[in-house]
Amino acid sequence: MKGKVCVFGSFNLDVVAGMTRFPLPGESLIAQHSMMGPGGKGANQATAALRAGARVHYIGKVGNDDFGTFARRHLEKTGFDAITLFTCKEKPTGNALIYVAGNDAENMISVYPGANLTVSAAEVARCQPTVAAADILLLQLENNLSAIQRMIDNARAANTLVILNPAPWQKISDALLAKVDLLTPNSTEAMLLTGVTVTDISSAQRAAEALHRKGARQVIITLGMAGALLSTETQQLHIPLFPAQPQDTTGAGDAFNGALAARLAAGETLPQAALFASAYASVCVEHAGAAHSMPSYADGLARLKAFADLAPQPLAEWV
Ligand code: RIB
């Protein structure tokens, strides 16, 4: 079954430099390779949801410039059910400068959101029928908070399930957290949201508990090499990391979130969808680039089957 996922989020033009190590402040360092291509957490997650088996409507905003034209051409041929791409006359298309370095292909990213931060109330209102028609609305925090809040309110009014990936972190209220059905921070974002330093599964359990107290009913905290913690008011599970040969970790979180939304929209349970998302993200990191590295559903399934012994593990109830 193909569920319908609406993704509201950023489009950025990514400039990526592959390095043997990260440059130091004040240092010029020769890159091993470089590429320029489509990115932005919203567009990446929309691509992941599509490739992981959902019907996807992507909503975003770009500048009235060459990168905006590039975005529209790229998005139109990606295979989405539909795109709603607004254009901003005052601000340029968002861009991101990305370094990838080290044995684990870690990344450092600076984002200039540009047009992504200019989505108006009238533009959100035009998207209301799209949000209402979706099974799931998936959002991040790379747009202006006013638009994110309105989109979430519209989703709730239409009984569309809301998944918020709070990346990159910006301050959000507990009232907003309480409107989200599933919150998916990484360890840094979980720490910024709760004040709990998240370094391992048990500290993630404490952060999840703090998020539940703030009103977030279901939480998945991604923990890098330690996998992920799935926490609801009734269960806590450890979602394992799948083995991978990392080339570029850029977009791994986007792969996880897009695949998670696609599999939930297809009717899978939260633990099943989270396990698939972990397998899917492990295939994503084996390819360079963000949007271009999103695997197919079949690739994610093959990784899942290759490590059939990996399964969600129940954790002691509360710490
Ligand atoms: O999550 C990776 C993405 O973060 C990149 O594509 C970049 O554009 C930033 O939004």
Automatic annotation (TrEMBL):
EC number in record: 2.7.1.15
Pathway: Carbohydrate metabolism; D-ribose degradation; D-ribose 5-phosphate from beta-D-ribopyranose: step 2/2
Location in the cell: Cytoplasm
Notes on activation and inhibition: Activated by a monovalent cation that binds near, but not in, the active site. The most likely occupant of the site in vivo is potassium. Ion binding induces a conformational change that may alter substrate affinity.
Enzyme class: transferase
Family membership: Belongs to the carbohydrate kinase PfkB family. Ribokinase subfamily. Belongs to the carbohydrate kinase pfkB family.
Protein name (database record): Ribokinase
The organism of origin for this protein: Pantoea osteomyelitidis
